[in-house]
């Protein structure tokens, strides 16, 4: 009898079209391969982190399994992999030293309950307001603490619970080395460093095996074959595995412990989820229907996992960047990959105990020490230096090392607030006259506190004079704005002229210069803009172009050079350090600095007809693009490469019209052959064709322009420097499309049905994007 039918309704005949039976837990092939890759990374790291905290080694496996299964099923970021993280090592080690292992498990459970409460209050995005310098400083301090402690095990000794004590004991430890432990540690570190750099085709195949697994396996095999006597992994029987106990101790200390664990777990997990969003958005090819992470749900999933892990005697859990990056780069398309990885950890913990017990403890210590060193990121240091936040970074790092994670973070936040208030209140206003022009320069943020000084300085400008007010800051409140506008109206009414100019997205209210004199500046709004060389009739007729060029250069020297000389002098001293390679078309309507709001030193720009990237070996005598890619990636160390196409591209129109010609052809026809794969790709299945968010391509030319961006990204991946940097997680690729007529930029994203170019303004919020950019800079961070 059918369970859905009334009790007395017979079914004499079976239905003619039975519904197809669906699998309860379908697992795609991409998810399965990604799960195996993540499992091979997670297994040695979980044991190493448990060793570093002083917890039972099985606790690392419990946390890895629970993080994969529970967070994978309940979390709001499907492709983020959670488990025991290096960022929690110092916190957990301190708790175990103070309260013992079972009480630490109870604290983990309470931290999970606190995370559930925060998730229900929907305050997850509030964690993203923490200063990037504080986050980077916290990670650096934790990394230093881990590295110093594990160095003692690498040398064959035992670490103390205090960083300062470990540093004091280091000379004595160096005098009492243990050769067997040292040899296994050195072998582990050598394999970790050498494995990702194996050359040739064989090296590319071998590098697919995680370096951490190779290093630990190599050390274990060497120790077993040589018969070295040294401490190894000991996994006690699961029957004697310790579960959580009731928290015991001073109430204030327990509250501080729960708060610290909650803070570190939550911040690391939420920032990791934002980073995974960016990794998924940058990925091209077939994709799952995965939207942006639900951070409140992610916090709920992390809380549930910490409750389960603590109850079962596991380590605290947070999102782990290394495993998440491997999961995304391995092609995972759903949360099933993280869940399968957790199941594999359970199988290994039950069936691979004899194998795991062959691993030398010195090898695990060397692995974790390398992770700790990587957490002190030179890129982070350069970033905070560029943003003048070194005091925040330094105080946080030293506070974490000397006092603890929670105290160090509180100190860092306090210094960050003090620096922000200092910048807000510190405003320098100067006035000087040069060649009859009165310059009033405002350095810093212009708030109501500075209005009296601003008013006094502006009144030093004589009536009828020409004045230029330069705003060298990023913020101006309403009171200051009204003061400026009132003065300008009064000054112009008395026969004077006034010009307001800002260095960063500032305002400029002066009248547009006459057509005979170009006064365009990089920060001038491009409304009603006319190019200097189109202003005069003689130039439109092809005459006097040289004179107009000289006139434009003269205008730059007179008007713009004095304002940018200081910045360019700094770049000349320090050299260029761009973070991005921007490859776009040579079309004169694409002004890269305008559409990216960038300035000197920001972008390494390559322009050619059709924004083409010839595949390796097919340059046909032109290696310029390949040379630029190699220089940008290997020498300049850019972190991002963007291929930007645009609407109405003449190269794409030529491809559609002539197909790049036949035979040798002209130089232009030979160059456009690199666009033939894009032309062929447009003939593919309609579901796989790119489109703009909200609409299909307007015509065949726009379809080819969009397809060409996707195809050139595929060509870009074939270049050796790019492939190596992608494999190391040191590089991101982005696709971009600029619609000239709409002045609208679109960024490449993807779904299962089609490749989509999303509206930048509609898809990304300014504040959130700024936070995302901070975390993704270190995809290799654990």
From TrEMBL:
InterPro entries the record matches: Carbonic_anhydrase (IPR001765), Carbonic_anhydrase_sf (IPR036874), SLC26A/SulP_dom (IPR011547), SLC26A/SulP_fam (IPR001902)
Residues spanning the signal sequence: none
Purpose: Catalyzes the reversible hydration of carbon dioxide to form bicarbonate.
Predominant place of localization: membrane
Family assignment from sequence similarity: Belongs to the beta-class carbonic anhydrase family.
Membrane-spanning ranges: 32-52, 59-81, 101-121, 133-157, 177-198, 210-231, 251-276, 339-356, 362-381, 393-421
Region Disordered, residue ranges: 1-24
Pfam family, one: Pro_CA
Alphabetic keyword roster: Membrane, Transmembrane, Transmembrane helix
The keyword Nucleotide-binding belongs to this UniProt entry's keyword annotation: no
Compartments (UniProt record): Membrane
Domain called SLC26A/SulP transporter: residue spans: 30-386
Name of the protein described by the UniProt record: Transporter
Species annotation: Streptomyces canarius
Lipid bilayer topology: Multi-pass membrane protein
Gene3D superfamilies: Carbonic anhydrase
């Amino acid at each position: 009898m059918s369970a859905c039918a009334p009790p007395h309704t017979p079914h004499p005949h079976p239905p003619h079209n039975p519904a197809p039976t669906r699998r309860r837990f379908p697992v795609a092939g991409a998810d399965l391969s990604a799960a195996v890759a993540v499992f091979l990374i997670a297994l040695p790291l979980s044991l190493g982190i448990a060793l570093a905290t002083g917890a039972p080694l099985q606790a690392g496996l419990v946390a890895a399994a629970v993080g994969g299964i529970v967070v994978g099923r309940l979390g709001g970021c499907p492709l983020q992999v959670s488990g025991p993280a290096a960022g929690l090592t110092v916190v957990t080690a301190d708790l175990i030293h103070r309260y013992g292992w079972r009480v630490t498990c109870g604290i983990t459970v309470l931290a999970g309950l606190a995370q559930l409460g925060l998730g229900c209050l929907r305050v997850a995005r509030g964690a993203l307001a923490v200063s990037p310098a504080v986050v980077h400083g916290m990670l650096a301090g934790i990394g230093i603490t881990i590295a110093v402690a594990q160095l003692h095990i690498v040398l064959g000794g035992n670490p103390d619970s205090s960083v300062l004590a470990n540093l004091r004991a280091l000379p004595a430890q160096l005098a009492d080395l243990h050769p067997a432990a040292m040899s296994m540690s050195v072998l582990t570190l050598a394999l970790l460093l050498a494995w990702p750099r194996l050359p040739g085709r064989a090296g590319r195949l071998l590098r697919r095996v995680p370096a951490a697994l190779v290093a630990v396996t190599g050390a274990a095999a060497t120790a077993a074959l040589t018969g070295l006597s040294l401490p190894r992994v000991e996994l006690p029987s699961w029957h004697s595995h310790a579960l959580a106990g009731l928290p015991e101790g001073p109430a204030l200390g327990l509250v501080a412990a729960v708060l610290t664990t909650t803070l570190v777990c939550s911040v690391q997990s939420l920032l990791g989820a934002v980073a995974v969003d960016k990794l998924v958005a940058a990925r091209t090819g077939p994709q799952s229907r995965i939207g942006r992470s639900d951070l409140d749900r992610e916090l709920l999933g992390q809380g549930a996992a910490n409750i389960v892990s603590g109850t079962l005697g596991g380590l605290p859990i947070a999102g782990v960047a290394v495993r998440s990056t491997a999961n995304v780069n391995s092609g995972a398309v759903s949360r099933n990959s993280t869940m399968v990885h957790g199941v594999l950890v359970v199988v290994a913990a039950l069936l691979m105990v004899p194998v795991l017990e062959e691993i030398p403890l010195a090898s695990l210590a060397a692995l974790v020490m390398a992770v700790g060193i990587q957490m002190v990121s030179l890129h982070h240091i350069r970033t905070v230096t560029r943003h003048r936040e070194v005091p925040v970074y330094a105080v946080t790092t030293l506070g974490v090392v000397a006092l603890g994670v929670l105290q160090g973070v509180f100190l860092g936040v306090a210094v960050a607030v003090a620096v922000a208030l200092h910048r807000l209140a510190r405003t320098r206003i100067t006035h000087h006259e040069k060649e009859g022009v009165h310059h009033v320069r405002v350095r810093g943020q212009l708030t109501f506190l500075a209005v009296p000084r601003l008013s006094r300085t502006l009144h030093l400008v004589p009536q009828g004079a020409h004045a230029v007010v330069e705003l060298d800051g990023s913020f101006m409140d309403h009171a200051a704005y009204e003061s400026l506008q009132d003065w300008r109206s009064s000054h112009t009414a008395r026969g004077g002229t006034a010009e307001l100019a800002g260095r960063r997205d500032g305002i400029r209210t002066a009248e547009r210069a006459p057509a005979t004199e170009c006064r365009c500046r990089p920060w001038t709004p491009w409304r009603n803009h006319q190019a200097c060389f189109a202003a005069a009739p003689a130039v439109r007729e092809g005459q006097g172009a040289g004179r107009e060029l000289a006139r434009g250069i003269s205008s730059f020297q007179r008007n713009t050079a004095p304002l940018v000389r200081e910045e360019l002098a700094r770049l000349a001293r320090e050299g260029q350090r761009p973070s991005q390679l921007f490859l776009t078309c040579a079309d004169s309507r694409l002004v890269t600095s305008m559409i990216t709001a960038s300035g000197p030193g920001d972008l390494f720009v390559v322009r050619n007809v059709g924004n083409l990237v010839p595949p390796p070996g097919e340059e046909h005598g032109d290696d310029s693009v390949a040379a630029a890619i190699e220089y940008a990636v290997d020498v300049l160390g850019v972190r991002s490469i963007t291929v930007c196409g645009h609407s109405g591209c003449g190269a794409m129109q030529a491809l559609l019209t002539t197909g790049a010609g036949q035979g040798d052809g002209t130089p232009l026809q030979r160059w456009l052959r690199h666009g033939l794969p894009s032309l062929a790709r447009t003939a593919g299945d309609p579901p796989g064709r790119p489109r703009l968010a909200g609409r299909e391509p307007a015509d065949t030319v726009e379809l080819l322009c969009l397809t060409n961006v996707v195809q050139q990204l595929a060509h870009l991946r074939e270049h050796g420097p790019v492939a190596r940097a992608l494999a190391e997680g040191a590089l991101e690729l982005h696709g971009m499309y600029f619609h000239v007529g709409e002045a609208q930029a679109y960024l490449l994203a993807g779904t299962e049905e089609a490749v989509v170019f999303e509206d930048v303004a509609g898809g990304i919020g300014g504040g959130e994007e700024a936070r995302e950019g901070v975390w993704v800079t270190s995809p290799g961070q654990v």
